[in-house]
Amino acid sequence: MLIALDMDGTLLNEEGIISPENxxxxxxxxxxxxxxxxxxxxxxxxxxxxxxxxxxxxPVVSLNGAAVILPDRTxxxxxxxxxxxxxxxxxxxxxxxxxxxxxxxxxxxxxELDKRVYLEKLATLKDEEVPEDLRWLLKAIVGKQFxxxxxxxxxxxxxxxxxxxxxxxxxxxFSLNLDLLKEASTRFAAIPGLxxxxxxxxxxxxxxxxxxxxAGVGMLAAYYGIPAEQVAxxxxxxxxxxxxxxxxxxxxxxxxxxxxKETADFVTRSNAExxxxxxxxxxxxxx
Length: 287
Fold this sequence. Notes:
287 residues, alpha/beta, 8-stranded mixed sheet, 6-stranded mixed sheet, 41% helix, 20% strand, globular
C-alpha cells in the first residue's frame, strides 16, 4: 500500500512539527512494507527538513506535485512553470502592497523584502485593528508563513525570474483582501496551462496544469508498481482534492475543509490530536 500524507493541517501539528505519535505510526507502517510518502505544497527543502527533524525517510511530492523526489533525493519528475507566461502577473502583484507572494524553485522560497515587511506589519496589528472574525485567522496564517523553512530574501523579485538557471515551479499569493486574491486568480487563470488551487481561503497557489498532488502521487505509485486502488491519501485542504480523486481510499482530517469530509471514506482526528496516527492505524486494521 502507498500512503500519501499532506503536511500542513495534516501530518504537522499546531506547533508545525511531526508528533512522536505520528512518527511512530509511520515507522510502523514502513516496517510492514508499506510506502509512506509526503504530498505537500511546500518546497522539497522545507518538507525534507521536517522529515529529518523526526528522523524519517520518505519520498516527497513537493510544490503541489511540481517536483517528485525519491528518498535518495533523486528527482523522479518535474513540471515547472513557464516563466515568460507568468512574469506579467507577478509584476502586477509587485505593485499591490496588500498582496504578499512567494516564488518557489525546487529548493528555495523567494520573497521580496517589501513583501516580508508587509507580512510582519500584519503580524503586529492590534486586536482592535482587525475584525474580530479575522483575528485568529490572521495570527494562524502569518504564524504558519514564518514557521516554514528559511526563505531567500531579494530586493526585487526580478532578480529571481531574470536568471536563466532559476526554474520556477510554483507561486503563492496571500492577502486578507479577498477581492485582490480574486483579481490575482483571474489574471493567472487567463494564462493557458496553469492550475490555481488554495490551501486556505486567504491564499492561492499557481502551478503548471499538469502539476498537482494527484499526478505526483500517481507518478510515485507507478514507480513503485502500486495500483491506484492500493493508494490511500490523507489531507485537509482544497489542494488535496486531486489526490483524493485518484486514490483508492481517502481520509480527511477532522479539521479538513467540508468538501474533503464529504468525499472521504473515513474522517480521522484533527492534526492537533495525532490524526495521521489514527488514520494509519485505521488503514492497517483494514488489511
